[in-house]
Specification:
Layout: H1 2-28, E1 33-35, E2 37-44, E3 47-50, E4 59-61, E5 67-68, E6 73-75, H2 96-110, H3 129-146, H4 154-163, H5 167-173, H6 180-188, H7 190-199, E7 203-208
Antiparallel strand pairs: 1-4, 2-3, 2-7, 3-6, 4-5
Helix pairs in contact: 1-4, 2-3, 3-4, 6-7
């Protein structure tokens, strides 16, 4: 009985510590501005292509003024182990804008691109794996604060942030570039890029970020 009581106290203590940490992390995470469409094409199981909208590209502007506007890339959404997918908050596509922004920062680093804004190669920004994690947390908080339909607890946000700061994430940061062919074709001939993947009969999903209602 004593062991059981001690175990309960230990669990309660751990949850309390994690809860406090998640509250502190949320308070220290700044909101930004999220806008644009998120277009993803499926091309084989668990593999997708993110395609920037020609008219309304997905864009996240951080509180510090950095503009993150993803270009074409391969993506799997949130790299969340399948065993967790059934747990609320841990779907690989549940918070797709945040995961796409995070994947793009990785892609920029791995492919030695100069800018986080694919439309503005002159924007020079140097990020590391921890900056990528922080930017993703900012997108998650922005989604939570600005859209009542987004349900994400502070604890889930905190655990996702911790997951992308692990040694495994740090090793992935220096992985190989997988998007060279996509980027070259996209930048050289957008119509040819679209035609190529339409010919493969891929599926297309479009997620539009809701427009904010005017004040008053």
């Amino acid at each position: 009985m004593r062991k059981k009581c001690c175990f309960v106290v230990l669990i309660a203590t751990v949850l309390s510590v994690v809860g406090c940490a998640s509250e502190r992390h949320y308070a220290n995470t700044k909101e930004g501005t999220l806008e644009g469409e998120l277009i993803v094409k499926w091309y084989k199981p668990n593999h997708f292509i993110f395609i920037p909208s020609e008219t309304d590209p997905l864009t996240f502007t951080r509180a510090n003024g950095d503009i993150i506007r993803p270009g074409p890339m391969y993506t799997d959404g949130g790299s969340i182990p399948r065993v967790f997918w059934s747990i609320p908050g841990y779907s690989p596509w549940g918070y797709a804008p945040a995961y796409i922004i995070h994947d793009w920062i990785f892609s920029v680093h791995q492919c030695n691109q100069p800018s986080l804004d694919y439309t503005n190669p002159d924007q020079q920004t140097t990020y590391d794996v921890f900056d990528a994690a922080q930017a993703m947390s900012e997108v998650l908080k922005t989604m939570r604060e600005q859209d009542p339909n987004v349900e994400i607890t502070k604890l889930v946000l905190f655990t996702i942030d911790r997951a992308v700061r692990t040694s495994r994430a740090q090793a992935a940061w220096n992985g190989e570039c997988e998007d060279t062919d996509l980027k070259r074709l996209f930048l050289d001939d957008y119509d040819a890029f679209i035609e190529k993947y339409e010919d493969q009969e891929v599926l297309e999903f479009v997620i539009s970020w809701p427009e904010q209602a005017p004040d008053g």
